[in-house]
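The step that takes the researchers longest sounds almost clerical: writing a folded protein down as plain text. Below is the pair of lines this work produces for a single protein:

——
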Amino acid sequence: MNVWASSQRCRRRIQNYAFFLGTRYSSTVDNHAFAQSLLLPKTSFALRPNPKEIEARHRARTCTDLYKWQFKNLEGPQFIFHDGPPYANGDLHMGHAMNKILKDIINRFHVSRGRRVQYIPGWDCHGLPIENKALHELGEDSASLPPLAIRQAANKTALREIETQKEQFQRLGIMADWSTETTYRTIDHSYQMRQLRVFRDMVENGLIFRRYRPVHFSPSSRSALAEAELVYKDDHVSHSVFVTFDLNTTEDVTVFQTHHLVGQAIQLLVWTTTPWTLTANMAIAVHPDLTYVVLRRTSAETPLLIVAKERMDALADIIGTADIVAELLGAELVGTFYTPIFATLCPSLRPLPIITAGHVTSTSGTGLVHSAPAHGAEDYNAFRELGLLDKKEEILCHVGSAGEFTTQVAEIVGDDGARGLIGESVLDGGSRKVVQLLKDIGALVKIQRIKHRYPYDWRTDKPIIMTATSQWFANLDDIKADALAALEGVSFFPPVSRARLTSFVQLRSEWCISRQRVWGVPIPALYHIPTDEAVLDSPTLEHILRVLDKKGIEYWWEGPVEEFVPPALREAGVAVDTVWRKGTDTMDVWFDSGTAWSMLDERGNGVPRADVCLEGSDQHRGWFQSQLLTAVASAPPEQRTLSPYGTLITHGMVLDQKGKKMSKSLGNVTSPMTVVDGGLDLKKEPAYGADVLRFWVASVDYWNDVYLGPVVLAQAAEGVRKIRNTARFILGNVGSAETRAKMKRVQRSEMGLVERYIMHELRVLEQTALEGYSQYNFAKVAAALSNFANITLSSFYFDISKDGLYANALDSLERRATVTVLDQVLTTMNSIMAPLVPHLAEEIHEAFNETESSIFTIQWKPLASEWDDAKANEEMKMLLRLRTAVLAGLEEARGDKKIKSSLEAEVELLVPDLEQPSPFIELLQREENLLKTLFITSDATLIDEGSLGTTSPEWVYVSSAAIPSSDEDLTIRVRPAQLEKCSRCWIFTRLPSEPLCPRCTSVVQR
């Protein structure tokens, strides 16, 4: 049942009161005087306000002004919430909204409990999306503009997007100081200098190095990528090929002699999903412990074929009918050689070796793996372990910065073969043309179209490749143990997320931190032009950082190289710019945002540390990890096991209400600003305001993926409406702040059972809320709050207390007890709801206390433990079970049209003779005067069976209820009320000879 303003019973009652005031009441009694004597609800608190107007009125008070006030005035221990910077690129999406609202709930809770909160919103401003957006707006591409022009345009774009997002975050009611001076941006000079100093510390710790090796490379971005910048798609389609390589059996080696294979034509069958990498083939790998078979196929002229024995059945369609000629271990093949696959096109190619590699398995392919160390991390590591890669020049790579075949491919496939390859994308036309070359030379056995899991660039949504480039790396192997040790002292919510972050750290050995873009923080390395060797050491960095700190980061691009070369590297009489050049690589954006911990206040151990960080589950691969790694890697040895955060909280993704990922192409995107302001069709997309969106965030299990759509939003809106109506009922009945100040409060010892029970339930609610907030389980808070408002109050307490509130004397003990309880209920409920729905809480606080101060300036002080009343709770539970049985009888009478209102009836409870005393019967006897209030009937009495009168009522409905701890039942008789209806309170307690009932007579006569 809804609260007063929306319940059908109240509406009928108010209509009847209005009728009572009208001219149709024909009694000689002064009706107007009776009506004025009723204490009907009165409040200016709107039933259905305009959320846009209400939130705009309270926004400054509960957001920026509040943040400044609490930071200046609160003396409790400081709570540092470290904001993971969202990307400054476009309007907010629902993930942004959920993220910031969750953070705000936590911050507001701590403020309400008297802790000073440090929360500095930030933005991640570098990277490809912003650069591309700026270039798109200019109508240019990166190749046609100088670096400084690109940087200026990207900077302008980032600043504009920050202002848009900042305004939208404020519309969500996020408490912070949003001025430019008190937020952080990764393009701020002070931020970039701190980042460069972290980088310098990592260099001094010997953890930064440059290497030519395969990395994740995005042709669409023209840059190297870190693992955290990848997304994996399960529906990527590749054209895999089975190809053959000719084994050199002419050499007099043991394996050929042992198995009588000297001089025979033997081929190695190999399978690959990346045909384009065959131009960079440098070896074929086998597992030393696998058994391989030499197969003779049907035709005697067909060369023998070698595959892993365990793969024969899986390869039956490829091999055809074949007999085993010989079996040998992989270790026996190691050290033999084969002819390069494109040797017929380029005869000068030298034989290549068969090597051993641990990543070769018998679960896929043929058991022989084509190895191209330029295009595969496992191949590269296998070569390094074997000591086969000492120099950059030793790795074959024919792929350029756009993912295209370069002119060097001619060294492998000859000039004729390269004529159609050069300039072709290896992922598109280049791959197809390589397959055609394989056909032409007779090396192609079969081509298969397969769907498999493949990495994509998360920003461009295009596939990436593995290819060798010269990149800067951070060595993680040397700090991995320290990083994992640092995580041991971190709390995780939900707890299962610990394993996710730990596993990601365990799996990493290197971090590619360089990017081939101009919009970013430079890696300030100098390159020796004659040797192309990089210089990156502590003295050089100190000199460069002094220049950049004085003249700005942009000076790296616009200043002459002479200013960045320290005296120790200069040669007398030689022009500096002929010997040295500045590097053009920029840092990975995860390095940018990952060094945000350096701006935090230092704790007692001298280490910057946040109490809490909260981000989406994808940040286990991103920001959570990059913060940890940069903090540990740049720390002195004695501090390397200290984490930059104390607690990590993870939230899931926002899906549509069918569980699908939100996508513009699917048309299922819900914008947070549309929820707040409404859409083009307000009937389909109402303007709910920020509090409804916040209540939805608070009410879901955010640590999982969550659903959002019209139905879900409507449910959240209904939840907020019911809480609002609960507050409105209380505001309408407790009187003004001045009236309440003059009213004599009722002490606990003077309260009746119902009031003590409600206060007990309020205490339970508050403790539940405090526990929920402390455990970051806001759904627990929202559910408990809604249940208390809807069930305990609206459906029960408000219903039974209306008569006393409306008709009792203002200073009566019963009414004062109810008002005392309602006053505390609204105070406590408002403290509980304030972090979730701050605008509503501020509106209630303003109306309740007639003040313009923020509710958050009043510390939430929990109820004393004296309100824990187990006895009142137990007794009320018994009475409520009886009430349920009585209401069923009343409903039966109403269904038979014997009554319209329960006040037209009275209840008799027939108490049986019991052999043993019953606490329940004793309770009924003690609280007999309360029963009619509980049942909302005109009377309720306890009688024994022998006291039943001889006259029968006009009608009677008989039922029963079990007596606790007894085999006996209590008989319930619902019958017509025996007295007349009072013209003032409408309870049937008036004698026929009197105009009013005794209660109303005493009130009116005062």
